[in-house]
Amino acid sequence: MLGPATARTDTHTWILPIGTPAMRCILTLLISLLILSGCQQSSEPPPEAPAHIPWVKTVELKEAGPTAQRFSGTLRGRHEVPQAFQIAGRVQQRFIDPGQRVEKGDLLFKLDTRDLAATAVGAAADLKRAEAALAIATNELQRQQQLVERQFVSEQTLQRLELAEREARSQLETASSRNKQAQNALGYAELKASNAGVITEVSVEPGQVVGIGQTLAVLAADQLLEVEVFLPEGINPPRRGYLPLANGKQIAMNLREIAGAADPRSRSWRARYSLEGPYPSSLTLGSVVSVRLAQKQTESSHRVPLGALDERGQTPQVWLVSDGTVNPLAVEVIDLGKEYAEIKVEINAGTSIVALGTHLLTRGMAVRELTQ
Fold it and tell me: Domain Multidrug resistance protein MdtA-like barrel-sandwich hybrid spans what residues (predicted)?
């Protein structure tokens, strides 16, 4: 059973039974008002949330300096002297190895000297025989001169003895020269370093028979170092460059010589660049190094961080920031470094470009700049 309902006015309070028609009308009216109020509140649109505009780091486009192209080169000595015997023979001993440093006069190779010693002994004996023959001829000539003065012998006999003495003297000179050659050959059996330096190459072993002038090793003087570079055909050899070191420092290089003709097989030109000392211990002869050769600035170029390059298009591109939006611009990459890239593009220096996160950008995207 439902109890009576209470209705209140300004002056009177009415108690209405819940089941009366008047009470039902009042309840219906109140329910309708509540439904209408709920509909009005739900129909109002909620306030819009502000759109999220990302931040991007930007940098200003800068003019690049003269182009420095990278090449691989070989570190060599200014003077590289092939070491060879002046006589032929069989190598008996080798006293060096590749990469070994030697001083002037150090023994490098030694030949078998048995035949050379025998030849020297024979030459010495021939010299003594020639000396004895000359002494006999001289004494005989002197004795005959006394007889001619006493007119015991004829002038023709004296002339014959003078010729014999002259012949013995020339034979002595010949024997003396041969003896000297034999002694020199015996000394040539030991090959010594012509100057201080590093042995860069050894091409013979003990027991091998070598000829006169055959290269046995290459001795490079390490007081003056150079870089040998092979340049592509058609390139103008730069006059200057530098050799970057592991510690971040650089060694200046200057062009010393360029080959008179291109290599017939590789069609490249050999160039030698001298290094300005002092040299660090990390530079060793024969090692391969990467050098930078400065080219003349023939056209304008710009330097940008590597993160500014976007490779999603058909060509590399950078993103320009203008009026709060970004748009891509195709560029030509000239050179790539460890941190920066050199590009060619028709745009003024000082233009703002996106430095990082270019792979997340789209054309016309709204951004906020965070300058570097």
Answer: 86-218
User: What is the 3-class SS of 316-371, one letter each residue?
Assistant: CEEEEEECCEEEEEECEEEEECCCEEEEECCCCCCCEEECCCHHHCCCCEECEEEE
User: With 90 as the cut, is the pLDDT of residue 1 above it?
Assistant: no
- Contact assessment for residue 282 and residue 262, using Cβ atoms and an 8 Å cutoff: no
Q: Which domain holds residue 26?
A: 5-41
Determine if the pTM surpasses 0.85.
no
Would you call the peptide bond into 305 cis, given omega within 30 degrees of 0 as the criterion?
no
DSSP 3-state of 138: helix
Number of structural domains in the chain:
4
Range of weakest confidence among 6-10, 113-117, 352-356? 6-10
Burial class for 283, CB neighbours closer than 10 Å (0-12, 13-18, 19+): middle
CA torsion, ordered 275, 278, 279, 281, to nearest 10 deg: 180
Q: What is the mean pLDDT of the chain?
A: 82
Task: Strand 340-344: give its sheet, edge to edge.
Answer: 62-63, 302-305, 340-344, 332-336
Query: What's the pLDDT score for residue 349?
Result: 78
> Partners of 211 in the beta sheet?
none
63: DSSP letter: E
